[in-house]
Q: What sequence folds into this?
């Protein structure tokens, strides 16, 4: 007899009504009603301003971003990581180079990022090539992490199969004992990457799905701006 499962369909919110938009309009206008917000010649300063706004309003991890890469079969692969630095050179994050994302970036050094700040009704999309950070940069950031996190970087074979939680806890205990009484150095497989953007798109919510979109495209050192239809 076939195995039958009783499933309840998830409740998908319906499209907002005119009354819903009217109720939410004041909040949307307060966050995104400034018509001069897109008056920028390049995207990084605008992104830094938006990130500062998000740090003041998001409940946690305003620097969380979806990182999308491509696997060996050409299929996209996404996960959430934390932005650790941003400047004119790009968007920097750190992880295990032997993880799935690390292997994918080594084979195809291009990526896309997505920041979504629900409290602000805004998002930012980034696309570009990926370059590794310098060993000095990786050392400096690794040294700033909590000791337990540094030990965890030694204990975890990230993205590999794990027999059970106890096996991971045993590995952590083993590495903690190995480094007892001494500094925890950076493993060679733990490093960082910088997404050097060639395209950055800003999106902000406006009533009735008539959203604002502004895309920056880079040609060499020059950024061009394009307003996009919602």
A:
């Amino acid at each position: 007899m076939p195995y039958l499962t009783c499933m309840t369909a998830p409740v998908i919110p319906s499209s907002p009504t005119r009354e819903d938009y009217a109720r939410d309009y004041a909040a949307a206008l307060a966050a995104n009603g400034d018509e001069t917000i897109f008056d920028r010649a390049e995207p990084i300063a605008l992104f830094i301003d938006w990130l500062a706004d998000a740090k003041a309003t998001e409940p946690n991890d305003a620097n969380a971003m979806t990182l999308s890469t491509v696997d060996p079969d050409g299929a996209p692969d996404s996960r959430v990581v934390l932005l650790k630095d941003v400047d004119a050179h790009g968007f920097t994050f750190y992880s295990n180079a032997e993880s799935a994302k690390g292997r994918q970036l080594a084979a195809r050094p291009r990526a896309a990022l997505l920041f979504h700040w629900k409290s602000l009704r805004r998002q930012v999309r980034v696309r570009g090539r990926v370059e590794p950070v310098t060993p000095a940069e990786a050392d400096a950031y690794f040294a700033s992490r909590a000791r337990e996190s540094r030990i965890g970087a030694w204990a975890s074979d990230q993205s590999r199969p794990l027999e059970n939680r106890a096996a991971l806890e045993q590995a952590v205990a083993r590495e903690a004992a190995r480094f007892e009484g001494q500094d925890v150095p950076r493993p060679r497989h733990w490093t960082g990457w910088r997404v050097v953007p060639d395209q950055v798109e800003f999106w902000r919510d406006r009533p009735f799905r008539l959203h604002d979109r502004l895309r920056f495209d880079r040609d060499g050192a020059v950024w061009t701006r394009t307003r996009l239809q919602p």
Remarks:
- The mean pLDDT is 89.
